[in-house]
Amino acid sequence: MKYDEFIKHVQSVAQLNSREEAECATYATLLTIKERIVGDEAKDLAAQLPNELGKYLYGREGENGQHFSMQEFITRVSEKQRVDPIATAIHVRSIFIVLRNAVTPGEFKDFQANFSEDYAELFPISPTSEVTA
């Protein structure tokens, strides 16, 4: 998936008013993913994304992820994005939906394995919630 397509899908799924809002939500989420997951897994995820997005996931190779709750994840994204936590949760879930469609199923499964059960509500439930252009 190309960068413009990814951002367009985020904007659509999250029902954001502008491309800039979609970009901000995406960057904040990717930076927080980098903090949360194992560095080598972040690198593997980045390798399947456009360079403009992947660059936000590099820099922690060989390091373990920080273990923090879903609520802390939302708080961190919210602070980076400067948006209230309720809207942030919707944005993060939308980005996870787009991510699932942007990378291989195996890579998304590996990515999801880095999160504890309390994150379940942020992850798409089934392939039937595919993103459409």
Walkthrough of the structure:
With 133 residues, the protein is mainly alpha-helical. The chain has a single domain, classed as Globin-like. 61% of the residues lie in helices and 0% in strands. It contains seven helices and no strands. The chain has helices at residues 3-14, 19-36, 39-47, 51-54, 70-81, 85-102, 105-112. The chain is globular. It starts with a helix and ends in a 21-residue tail after the last helix. Mean pLDDT is 92; it is low at 128-133.
Total separate domains: 1
Secondary-structure-derived class: mainly alpha
CATH-derived topology: Globin-like
Distance separating the two termini: 12 Å
Shape: globular
Tag the structure with descriptive keywords:
133 residues, mainly alpha, globular, Globin-like, single chain, 7 helices
